[in-house]
Design brief:
Blueprint (H helix, E strand, L loop, with lengths): L2 H11 L9 E5 L5 H8 L3 E6 L2 H13 L6 E6 L2 H4 L4
Parallel strand pairs: 1-2, 2-3
InterPro entries: SAM-dependent_MTases_sf (IPR029063)
Keywords: Methyltransferase, Transferase
GO molecular function: methyltransferase activity
Length: about 90
């Protein structure tokens, strides 16, 4: 994940006791490095990605690390069309 994301999360959310109640949405998650970090920190995560391969890699990584229970919803497709589905 980017240093800016880590700082933003630390500044705004590290005092939250139950992070699973906060859902982080990423548009264009790629292979999910940012959402992986958020899931690892205990947040619920959602995302939209054009690439089916990217989504599959992300889901596999979370499954391998026993973090898949943090996934709220992941959509494959165009952001403009999928954003209203959240």
């Amino acid at each position: 994940p980017s240093e800016n994301l880590i700082r933003f999360i630390a500044k705004n959310f590290y005092n939250v006791k139950d992070r699973s109640k906060i859902n982080i949405l990423e548009l264009g998650l790629g292979t999910g490095a940012n959402l992986w970090f958020c899931a690892k920190e205990g947040f619920s995560v959602s995302g939209i990605e054009w690439s089916k391969t990217g989504v599959e890699r992300f889901k596999q990584r979370l499954e391998n690390e026993n973090l898949s229970h943090h996934i709220q919803e992941i959509k494959i497709g165009d952001y403009e069309q999928k954003l209203d589905e959240f």
